[in-house]
Design brief:
With about 210 residues, this protein is of the alpha+beta class. The chain folds into 2 domains: about 80 residues, Glutaredoxin (3-Layer(aba) Sandwich); about 110 residues, Up-down Bundle (Glutathione S-transferase Yfyf (Class Pi), Chain A, domain 2), CATH 1.20.1050. The protein is built from 8 helices and 4 strands, in the order E-H-E-H-E-E-H-H-H-H-H-H. Strands 2-1-3-4 form a 4-stranded mixed sheet, with helices on one face. Belongs to the GST superfamily.
């Protein structure tokens, strides 16, 4: 059976859990991370030298990086709806997944640590304002993509791009900050909320 190492409140673990729900995969979840089993042990670091969750163990192999894990699971189980096999269609999905992991994540990191985690190390008002502004700017970019080509991020059907960005959008909506009204994002979020996997692992009260 697939084993997932990582605490179920982690945004990156929840991407993997929602992907499993869409595919219909059984798995065993072992809670690792802050407040649970440690990730700085030699055994865990052999699986992921970054000491971060999630990690999966499947067929005797370990794998880390949440977006890569989602790609692997969709590919292994033949879910070309979630990750197309045609090269350009696949690249469009992966483009938005990579954008989520680089541009969008970097934008919200300071604001999230300051506003949600209330980290004492993130008390710079100018840095907070810049993070909020960039986070909102990039969410407006996602809104434009959905308005032009929806109803999902890459067109007519749900893909892995929606899964990873759906978790990010949930965090954006939950953060205690001023946000623009983004009608296409709101409609898309409501559409995602019709899916049981998103209600359980995405829009579930956790940022």
């Amino acid at each position: 059976m697939l084993t997932i190492l990582g605490k179920s409140s982690s945004i990156n673990v929840r991407k993997v859990l929602w992907t499993c729900a869409e595919i219909g995969l059984d798995y065993r979840l072992e809670q690792y991370g802050s407040g649970f089993l440690p990730t700085a042990t030699p055994g865990f670091l052999r699986m992921n030298p970054n000491g971060m969750v999630p990690v999966i163990i499947d067929d005797g192999h370990s794998l880390w990086e949440s977006n890569t894990i989602c790609r692997y699971l969709a590919g292994k189980h033949g879910r070309s709806d979630l990750l197309p096999s045609e090269p350009m269609a696949r690249a469009q999905v992966e483009k938005w997944m990579d954008w989520q992991a680089t541009e969008l994540n970097n934008a919200w990191r300071y604001a999230f640590m300051a506003l949600v985690r209330q980290s004492p190390a993130h008390g710079d008002a100018a840095a907070l304002a810049a993070s909020v502004a960039e986070w909102n700017r990039l969410m407006a970019m996602l809104d434009a993509q959905l308005a032009a080509g929806g109803p999902y991020v890459c067109g007519e059907t749900l893909t892995l791009a929606d899964i990873v960005l759906g978790l990010s959008a949930n965090r954006w909506r939950a953060a205690p900050m001023a946000r623009p009204v983004l009608a296409a994002v709101d409609a898309w979020f409501s559409r995602l909320s019709e899916r049981a996997g998103f209600r359980t692992h995405g829009c579930n009260g956790l940022p």
